[in-house]
């Protein structure tokens, strides 16, 4: 928190750290015979762009599949998109010769690197060849930088729930719940304009009131959402629809390096029919063949999940 000016009419400025939750907890995950411990959040961040701090259902689905088919990982080079805290990439490092974990968010990369350090320490030598890189989907420059360091490309591209980024469970909520959330935004915006020129004491009183009201409503909504981040349907659809083409642009560039010898394994969790269709259509429009892995369709939590293998046609 920073303070500008002096006297009664000081303006209190909240820096970005105010909205970041870094209360990570060491958590144990078991996949077959493999046991992993990683730092992650158990509840949603206050910032929708930090969903990588959580372990999502798709990661559990993918790790379960990989642990049962570990032979496909033996000696492979792997790049994971949207690695988050690294639960999938770190599992793969038990079997692969090299694993590149990627994410676009600096805060997520911090916890990702912390988990890599945890698993490459002298006490834990099962994991080798782990490295984290920043990667914005669709960024040819960042993809080129990674491929310059890994000129032979990769055997596998992995992704789990990466097209989601933000939770779509709000789409299934009642109209009443949606209007409650809109009300939160309305209150915040109106109070912002009311207090930005007020005296510091009035600012603090108003801010405390806002936080109390918003936390009450936020806790109610997050409780219904199962602890995941919640945003308005319009923002969810717009953000997800814009991210899916960039995802497949990135996958296409990675697959082209070893055409016919590299495949994209996607753990897909269905949350909205429009997104189901968009993922399939984007793969096809990028000249890819998308195939469901037989026997992998299952229920993850209360959602339907499946493993897809995606290759260049």
Automatic annotation (TrEMBL):
Q: Keyword Membrane on this protein?
A: yes
> Please, which domain of life does this record's source organism belong to?
Eukaryota
Q: Which GO terms describe its molecular function?
A: protein methyltransferase activity
Q: Which Pfam families match?
A: Methyltransf_16
Whether Membrane counts among this entry's keywords is yes
Q: What keywords appear on the UniProt entry? A: Membrane, Transmembrane, Transmembrane helix
PANTHER family the UniProt entry points to: METHYLTRANSFERASE FAMILY PROTEIN, METHYLTRANSFERASE-RELATED
Q: What is the recorded name of this protein?
A: Methyltransferase family protein
């Amino acid at each position: 928190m920073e303070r500008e000016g002096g006297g009664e009419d000081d303006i209190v400025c909240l820096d970005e750290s105010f909205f970041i939750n870094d209360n990570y907890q060491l958590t144990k995950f078991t996949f077959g015979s493999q046991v992993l411990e990683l730092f992650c959040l158990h509840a949603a961040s206050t910032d929708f762009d930090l969903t990588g701090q959580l372990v999502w259902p798709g990661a559990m689905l993918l790790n379960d599949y990989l642990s049962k088919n570990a032979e496909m990982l033996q000696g492979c080079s792997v790049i994971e998109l949207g690695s988050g805290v690294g639960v999938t990439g770190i599992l793969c490092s038990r079997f692969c010769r090299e694993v590149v974990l990627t994410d676009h968010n600096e805060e997520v990369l911090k916890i990702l690197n912390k988990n890599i350090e945890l698993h490459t320490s002298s006490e834990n030598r099962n994991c080798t060849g782990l490295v984290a890189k920043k990667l914005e989907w669709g960024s040819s420059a960042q993809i080129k930088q990674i491929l310059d360091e890994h000129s032979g490309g990769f055997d596998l591209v992995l992704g789990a729930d990466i097209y989601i980024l933000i939770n779509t469970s709000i789409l299934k909520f009642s109209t009443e719940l949606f209007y409650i959330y809109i009300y939160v935004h309305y209150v915040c915006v109106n109070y912002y304009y009311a207090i930005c020129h007020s005296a510091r004491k009035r600012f603090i009183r108003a801010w405390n009131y806002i936080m109390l009201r918003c936390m009450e409503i936020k806790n109610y909504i997050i409780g219904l959402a199962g602890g995941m981040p919640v945003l308005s349907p319009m923002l969810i659809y717009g953000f997800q629809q814009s991210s899916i083409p960039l995802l497949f642009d990135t996958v296409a560039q990675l697959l082209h390096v070893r055409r016919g010898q590299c495949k994209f394994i996607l753990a897909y969790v269905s949350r909205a029919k429009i997104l189901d269709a968009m993922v399939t259509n984007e793969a096809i429009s990028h000249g890819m063949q998308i195939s469901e892995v037989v026997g992998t369709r299952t229920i993850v939590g209360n959602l339907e999940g499946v493993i897809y293998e995606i290759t260049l046609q």
